[in-house]
Amino acid sequence: MSPSRLSAEERDRFSWQLARLLYRTTRLFGLTGSLVAAVCISLPGALPPANTVGCLALIGALAATQVAMTHRPSPLWMVLAFSIGLTLIAAIYIPVNGVLNMATGAAVGAIAAWGIGSMATILVSSWGQLLCLMAGFLSTIGFLLALSQNATGRMPSLIILVTSGWAISTLFGYWLRSSFPRVMRRVSSIGRAHNIERRASETEAQRHRDARLLHDTVLATLTLLAHSGVGVPAESMRAQAESDRALLKRLRLGETPQPRSSGEYTLTNTAELALGGTLEALKGRFGSMGLDIDWHGSGQIGLPGRKLEAFILALSECLENVRRHSGVSDAHVTLSDDGEIVRGVVTDAGSGFDPTIVADGKLGFADSVVARVRDAGGSVRVFSAPDAGTTVVLEMPK
């Protein structure tokens, strides 16, 4: 994927990051050159005291201009920084009549190579900028040669130092610019892979949620019909079938789990569609289907919406399992709330089962009860054995 195919927002974001890196590098190079020059000039005997103070003031002005140039990019700041750099070089040369010692030579080299040479890092984006870069470099070399008519043998090494500084800044800036398309392609590729993986995860989570909903409602009714509705009044069967029909119609019209953000799903009135949304509706539903339930404890469940929905649906599935598989017609449900955790205990004296052989990958108890409660932050404990009844403890923290 070429950079030209990226969105304008992506290109702008990458361009901003690249520009910030280039200007930070320019500031680092420039301030390093200014600092080295200040240290060299401050050495004893480098310059007469009066000239040292003036040169240090110019170095301070150059450093301030370098910071301003990289915080608020403008050609005027670059021209000002270049002018101050040349003025500083002249202020070092003139008092010593072009005869540089080791300290002043190092100071001039630091200013010419890095103090003003650092600007080459940001002058590599276009042919016009490259022409400005070449003009700045040649002007710096020419200015040094003009000032050093009485120079000693330090001039060749000084020219090499200045050329190296400008070359390093130029090559570093060019390398960053040329790496820009490759970085954009790599980051965009990672972003696309992340989006594909996220959508796949969201689709899988939505599929599980849909399967749970259908398993706990429509499939339960179909299973009951397959067994000729034994033990369930005909009126209750018709009411349940009508409820399932309404659910399927609303799902067909688009009321399906849709990811509003990664990992979060909502379904319009899921609890209402499946259970009527209240414990009273839950009691009435199973009472009409021939399962006598003794309710104990609190009649209210103080949980937020998502946790309440998961708790009620898991409780309903436990009772549905009692009705369909236990072989008994009565169960006990105890609800409690200690202020931190809401508990629901479903107990029957039926045929029981071996919890260790419940397949994790199948719907039913493992998915509609255990996985549902766990996904909402709760836990499920099961105590059962063949011919010894079953007790299921649902715990949901507030």
Written account of the structure:
The chain crosses the membrane at residues 21-44, 50-69, 76-96, 102-123, 130-149, 155-176. Keywords: Kinase, Membrane, Transferase, Transmembrane, Transmembrane helix, Two-component regulatory system. Pfam families: HATPase_c. The structure is a single chain. The chain has 12 helices and 7 strands. It is α+β, with helices and mostly antiparallel strands. The chain has helices at residues 8-42, 49-71, 75-93, 102-115, 127-147, 155-216, 218-226, 234-252, 270-275, 279-288, 305-326, 365-375; strands at residues 258-261, 264-266, 292-297, 330-337, 341-348, 379-384, 390-397. The two termini are 48 Å apart. The strands form 2 sheets. A 5-stranded mixed beta sheet has the order 3-4-5-7-6, with helices on one face. A two-stranded antiparallel ribbon has the order 1-2. It has 2 domains: 3-191, no CATH class; 217-397, Histidine kinase-like ATPase, C-terminal domain (Heat Shock Protein 90, 2-Layer Sandwich). A hairpin with a 5-residue loop joins strand 6 (379-384) and strand 7 (390-397).
